[in-house]
Design a protein that fits this description.
Blueprint lengths: L3 H8 L3 H42 L1 H12 L3 H29 L1 H18 L6 H15 L2 H10 L4 H11 L2 H17 L9 H23 L12 H16 L9 H4 L3 H21 L2 H9 L5 H28 L2 H19 L4 H22 L1 H6 L2 H15 L1 H17 L2 H19 L15
């Protein structure tokens, strides 16, 4: 009679076979994600560029809106930030809908509706219409960014995401690098067909989002099972790895959205992302005007080109920072260094010297962009399934209220101390607060990184 131990030793998978199976799975993972990066990331980056362009182009229109319709600094600050109120209100339901109906259809809806609203900004006639359209723009765009974050979890295992997020986040600085000169050039169309330059800017840049939305329906697959460019074995390997990762991410006492609210980590992520957005939009909404003041000329093409320099630096910084974080498995250190760079850059940009101020803006832009590409590794590694959909949306929704706070903080501080430098220092303080919160993040990611050659 065969003993249980003898039977077990004969039927168990030998260690060498298990190692070979793991190696094959790893090769399939690398191949599948390499294909996904090549096929998906360029279009996702283009979508993000258009989104950020329509969200932030009012920075280029600020002076023209003040001159043409009498928009005050306080109303501009409120209107710039009220976008995030509408955004926050509809963020979570939008992402939960995407989780159920698929990315292709829901992203198409989001892009077309926000493009139409963005174009409608050309009909702004005063304070009421400006604030209403900015709020409506936030409602229309709600769900876009967390939808993309959720979508990436359908394709990329945890160990790939630092690299993938670093690539995706190129869309942010690229939008500002080329968007500021583009917006400046469109302002130069003033008078054609009786339209002001800022009206042309809103019309054409919003129209671009509508075109992108139509393309999204035909270009964006819902998931790996819907594409022909992955082999059956590659699809199976991805599904196995992603299911295995998801099984280890239970939060609270269940897998549902309700259990998510018992997570203490969620509160930490919310607080950190909020102060990050205060620093980020403290730069975004005012950079063209700040450069205009440094160069002593009105916002136009030349100011737009110089305004693009800090964002070009952010592209390089994001590439370098995410590669180093991936190589050394040090996301917390990456977040800390980027927040320190953002706060330092904001302080330095307030100095009187022109070149030094521009360098400070370059450092600030590099910090606020790179830190976000690294930050999202933490919530994406902590949540899965419907909890991931809800958590990503909630973090982005509440966190982006920092985008509402940033222009109002700058405006209030500048008027209180009667100098624009005070507004800069106020949003720089957000970076320092972020340092204190980030110090309590986990030291390393959940899985060991791949080596980068």
């Amino acid at each position: 009679m065969t003993s249980p131990s003898t039977y077990s030793s004969r039927t168990a998978t030998p260690p060498v076979a298990k190692a070979d199976e793991a190696d094959r799975e790893d090769v399939l993972r690398r191949t599948a994600t390499r294909k996904a990066v090549a096929k998906l990331l360029p279009f996702l980056i283009l979508m993000y560029i258009v989104a950020f362009l329509d969200r932030s182009n009012i920075g280029s229109a600020k002076q023209a809106l003040h001159a043409d319709i009498g928009l005050s600094d306080a109303v501009f600050a409120f209107g710039a930030g009220v976008f995030f109120i509408g955004y926050a209100l509809f963020e979570v339901p939008s992402n939960l809908i995407l989780y159920r109906v698929g990315a292709k259809r829901w992203m198409t809806r989001i892009m077309i509706t926000w493009g139409l609203v963005s174009s409608a900004m050309m009909f702004t006639t005063g304070e009421t219409s400006f604030i209403a359209l900015r709020m409506l723009l936030g409602v229309a765009e709600a769900g876009f960014f967390p939808g993309i974050m959720l979508y990436l979890t359908f394709w990329f295992p945890e160990r790939e995401r630092t690299r993938v997020l670093g690539i995706f986040y190129f869309g942010y600085p690229l939008a500002m690098t080329f968007g500021n000169p583009l917006s400046g050039a469109l302002l130069g169309l003033h008078g054609i067909f009786g339209l002001a330059g800022w009206q042309w800017m809103f019309l054409l840049e919003g129209g671009l989002a509508v075109v992108m939305g139509c393309l999204t329906y035909f270009v964006l697959p819902d998931g790996p099972s819907d594409v022909s460019w992955l082999t059956i074995r590659e699809k199976q390997a991805l599904a196995t790895i992603l299911d295995r990762e998801a099984s280890g991410k239970t939060v609270g006492h269940g897998h549902g959205f309700g259990a998510l609210l018992t997570s203490g980590k969620l509160l930490q992520f919310l607080a950190l992302y909020t102060v990050m957005q205060v620093a980020s939009y403290g730069v975004v909404f005012y950079l063209p005007e700040q450069v205009s003041s440094i160069l002593h000329e009105q916002i136009g093409f030349r100011v737009g080109v110089v305004s693009g320099l800090p964002w070009a630096c952010a592209i390089v910084a994001t590439l370098v920072a995410t590669r180093l974080v991936h190589r050394y498995a040090a996301p917390r250190m990456g977040v800390l260094l980027c927040l320190a760079a953002a706060a330092t850059g904001l302080f330095v940009s307030g100095q009187e010297a022109g070149v030094l101020s521009i360098l400070g803006l370059c450092l600030a832009a590099a910090g606020v962009v790179a830190v976000q590409a690294i930050f999202w590794n933490f919530p994406l590694a902590h949540f899965s399934g419907v909890q991931a959909a809800g958590a990503i949306a909630l973090i982005n929704a509440i966190g982006n209220l920092g985008g509402f706070a940033a222009p109002n903080i700058r405006s209030y501080a500048s008027h209180l101390w009667e100098t624009p430098v005070a507004g800069l220092y106020a949003v720089a303080l957000a970076g320092l607060i972020g340092l204190a919160i980030a110090a309590f993040l986990p030291r390393a990611p959940r899985v060991a990184p791949d080596p980068i050659a």
